Structures are given as structure tokens and as C-alpha cells.
Amino acid sequence: MKHILLISQYFYPENFRVNDMAVEWVKRGYKVTVLTGIPNYPMGRFFDGYDYKHKRKEQWNGVNIIRIPLIARGNSSNKLLNAGGMVANYLSFVASGRRWVKKTDVKADLVFTVEVSPMTQALIGVWYGKRYHVPSYLYVQDLWPENVEIITGIHNKVMIEPINKMVDKIYRESDKIFTTSPSFVEAIVNRKVPVDRKKVHYWPQYAEEFYKPLPRQVVESINENDNSYKIVFTGNVGTAQGLDILPKTAKLLKDENVKFVIVGDGRYQREFEQLIDALDVRNKFIIIPRVQAEQIPKILSACDAGFISFNKTSLWEMTIPAKLQSYMACGKAIIASASGETKRIIEEALCGVCIEIGNAEALAKGIRELMKANGAKMGKNARIYFELHFDKKILMDKMDKYILEEIR
User: Fold this and answer.
1) pLDDT per position as a tens digit, 75-102
2) Phi and psi of 248, rounded to 5°?
3) Which of 130, 175, 351, 364 could be disulfide-bonded to 135 (CB atoms 3.0-4.6 Å)?
4) How far is residue 229 from each of residues 69, 172, 259, measured CA to CA in Å?
């Protein structure tokens, strides 16, 4: 039985697609060990039942989980404290990972790092690969240092250059690099220190099998007797998502029978709800706390369209957000305040409306257009595109081939 060491700072019960990848590998006959942290994302505090002493080792759906110590992210209204908490969180995980690599007796045939920020966690995979002379694979979902510059606003070369050097080292010492978008491939290959194109591959995120079209269902708190056109956003409520556009748009649509359903939470939640109240549009929103991913398709079935948005940056233009695959898998029409890769896919699939980022007037107009359009046809188009490009079996079969090239 081939053994994969999967490194991810985030893992079950945190809600990331890497959870499903690990379980799928077990189903395919691999032994899977996950090295991860103590769960604390997105709210910045350890999940109930988890701490430095409890649940440090677990078995879940056939996956062996090892949790190394880290400092929880925290969640403060002070931006400096928030930034400091994030840095401490990132550095504490990689420091614990360094100690773990030096003393572990876990011997895998391949190490696979799933990099949703921070990129620092990929150092653990590099160190492990070197120590045990096994192939090191890297799955890039956030580009660094671009992500650091956007999130922190720091562009000082003295601070960014060491990060660049770390990223160069990680790319150089990874045997294969996978990315979630074609634009990421180009960005990596064309870095100042170039990366060999032959080892960089586009491997998009898929949506789990439970994401599928469902007949319209009754969901408590959503199905009200108002016949409103419901637009749903699911996932992390963070600053990067640019969700401030929604209360502004709701104000413009005050006389329209439209409601926005927000499913999730995050570090921007408090400010987001304050803006809703400041603009006096609370009646336009249905806010549902974070739910298990398996519940999302039912919620989507009770709504008319899925919503995606970003802040305007070159990095987000290159990004394909995971919720895009989820919406498409469920056969939903999509309205997006986005550009770049997201806009390309929506237009190729003929599955929705894409408007200029941050433009509330354009979003209000786009919503009015979508309400008049054939949403069912758009939803079917979305599902067809999903099956062609983002099907789980096709993508995992492809990954199997990459893995078996190295560890036969």
C-alpha cells in the first residue's frame, strides 16, 4: 500500500476541500497520513474539544491525522492585532512542522502539500522530502508573495524579498507543482527566478459528489411567503471577498423583490452586518451561520442564483474560487462581481452575469437582467461545464497518474 503524507495547515473539522481529497485517496487504496494544525479557522479560536493536549491524533474516515501545535489566529477588531495573530499562526505551524520532521518516524512514499495560505507550510513538505528522499508535490491555491502584499498592504522590498526567496526555494525543490488556475501556471513559470514549465500543471479544484442539482426544497428561514428572488453567497465572510458591495446594491434594489442569503462567517462578519444596518437594508438579507458543506446543495436549491465577488486586485483576477465549482455542480445561475478567470469561465459556460468589480450600480442592473433571463437554462449550462472541466473522478484519475509516475 502506497503511503501519502498530506500536509495542510487546515483540515477536518475545518471545512476545506482537502478533506475530501484525503478520503478519496483512502478509497483508492492509499494509506494517508495528514499533518495539520489544531483547528481554529475561520473564527480564530480553537474548535471545541481541541487544544494543545486533546485530539492531537485522530482517525477520521480512514485518514490518520497528526495535529502539531500552533497559535490560534485570533479575531480582533484591531487590524494590527489581526495581522499579528495571523503571522504568529503561520510561523508557529511551520516551526512545529520543522521539529516534527526532525523527530518523526512516519515514512511515506510521497509528500503532498496543499497550499492555501500560508505558503510557509510548504517548507515542511520540502524538508520531509529531503530527509526521506521522497517526491515532494505542491498544490498552489494562493500565490505568494502576491497574497501577502494584498492582505497586509506591505510592499516594502526589505520585507517581501525574503518571502520571494522562500517561494523560489519551495518551487525549486518541489518535484511537481499543481495550480488551481491557468493564470497561476503562467505566474509561476514566469517568475523572476523562472520555474520549469514541465513540472507546473493546471489541476483545478473539483466539487464533492454531494454537490448536485436538487429540486427546490423548503429551508427554514429561507423559504418565506414573499416570492422574493434569492441570491446566495456561501463561504468565508472576509475582506478579500468584497462583500461590502451587497448592502450598497440592496439599497439600490430597495423597491425590488430581491433578497441576499449569506451562509457562513468570518473575520469581516461584524463590519459587514454593521454596514447592512447603517444602510438600513436588514430586510434585504437572510444571514445563516456556517453550516456543514453537505447542507449547501439544499440551501442552493432554495435560491435562484449564486453570488461571487472579489476586491479588485490582479491576484483575484487569476483566481478561480472554489465556490464557483460548487455553484456550477448544483446547476445554479451565477452573478459575479469579478473579472479574469471567474469571468472567463462564466462567459464560456453561458451560465450567468459578470459585472465590474465593486460597482454597485452595475450589480443592481445585472441582477435585474438575471431576474428576467432564463435562469434554468443558465443552471443547466453551468452543470454541463462542470461535468466537462471540474468532475472529481476525472481529476482524481489524472492525479493518480501523476502520483504513480513517481512511486511505482
Assistant:
1) 766 666 777 888 899 999 999 999 999 9
2) -65, -40
3) 175
4) 46, 50, 6
